[in-house]
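Comment thread on ticket #2218

A.B. wrote:
> Attaching the input chain for the structure job we discussed in standup.
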Amino acid sequence: MQRSVAMVTGASSGFGLLTVVELAKSGYLVIATMRDTRKQEPLLTLAEEQQVRERIQVWSLDVTKRTQIIEIAEKLTETYQRLDVLVNNAGVSIGGFNEEIREEDWRLSMETNFFGVVFLTQAILPLMRQQQSGKIINMSSVGERIAFPGYGPYSSSKFALEGFSESLRLELANYGVDVILIEPGAYQTDIWTKGFTHIENTSPTDSPYQHPMKQVLSVGKLLTKQAGQPIDVAKKIVNISAKRKPRLRYAMGRGSMLAVILTGLLPWRWLEALIRWQLRKK
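C.D. wrote:
> Ran it. Output below, let me know if you need it in another format.
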């Protein structure tokens, strides 16, 4: 019987790296894609430690490049003739106050977090439809539940991803292909520390938003220190991959669960007042 095949984008670190190894441990042949394959060493080292190196292939893919997406879909079809699980994990966390965010940062956020998912999914869907099976797992965020100040580009891309995923799930319901959203809160991954650094390096020194931006960064850094371990998310993805009828959404982590509860119970004006109070704190 042919081994099941999975593909994970953004596999050089964080959720992506751990998901590749966990899928390989559960028996999948995993295609680990990353923009810069020179960064594959941490993945391969962990794979060796877990004795699954022979089940992992590292392929180059920048999800913002349409030509690379087409090429990798063709390579996948020619090499394995199937794809059972696609984990759209590649992402960037770009923030700042909306008035001051550069055009190139808005575009990078949407190209990576949204359009990259859309176009890669389009490219592999004929294969999944033909085999009448498959799971497309899209990494969303707690930022879809509440669009926090200071993270306009990130939240916008995740809101768009959620709408795309809902629509796609309904379209594929009769073709044996499931679409799933993972909505993590804060976890100890590089995406947030890189995001904080980007905000600090790109925010104008004379910004009228200096104080609220400091508050946003302070809260974000505190939450990251208290965040859960990303291995929990990787193991959940493997668990979902084995489910016969997975749900559309899986909220994970304290921050995400709290956001689900708050948005479900409290009027928006109360949430808004709470956030505005936090931004004004000295």
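A.B. wrote:
> Thanks. Noting for the ticket: The beta strands are 5-8, 29-34, 56-60, 85-88, 134-139, 177-184, 249-252.
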